[in-house]
Amino acid sequence: MTDAARRDPEAVSNFVESFAAQLVEAGMQRMPARVFAALLSSDAGTMTAAELGEQLRISPAAVSGAVRYLAQTHMVSREREPGSRRERYRVHGDQWYEALTNREALIKRWEGALREGVSSLGADTPAGRRMAETLAFLEFVEGEVAAMMERWRVHREKLFGT
Length: 162
Known about the structure:
The protein has helices at about 5, 10-25, 30-40, 50-55, 60-70, 95-120, 125-160, and strands at about 45-50, 75-80, 85-90. By secondary structure, it is mainly α. Strands 1-3-2 form a 3-stranded antiparallel sheet.
């Protein structure tokens, strides 16, 4: 009997809902949080829309919307089943790394907008100083995240050899 066959479906469902609730509390939308938790808890790390709908008791439209959000945020990827039009949705072991790394482009855009704001408002005005401080914070965070991600790559290699 496989580990998956020995699992208590109710315990898995409780984990999915509990972890999804934590993600919602952190700001993620409810349905994407549930879909992500379901994918994360599956041994294969991949499920079809039908499998997700059945496990979570949600409509195909809810699955579609959740997966669209998760794909845009680089939390899951879509894959076509060979010889089929059906898609599978996959969560990777490094999804947190990918999601965080892809936030760098967003932070860069914010930095550009803030630089423009400081210039437009004047660096010597209260609003300009506030914007300059926000910009400095984002630049600091960006440097720290880049260094942290490099440390994670080394640490992950030691732990998992990948």
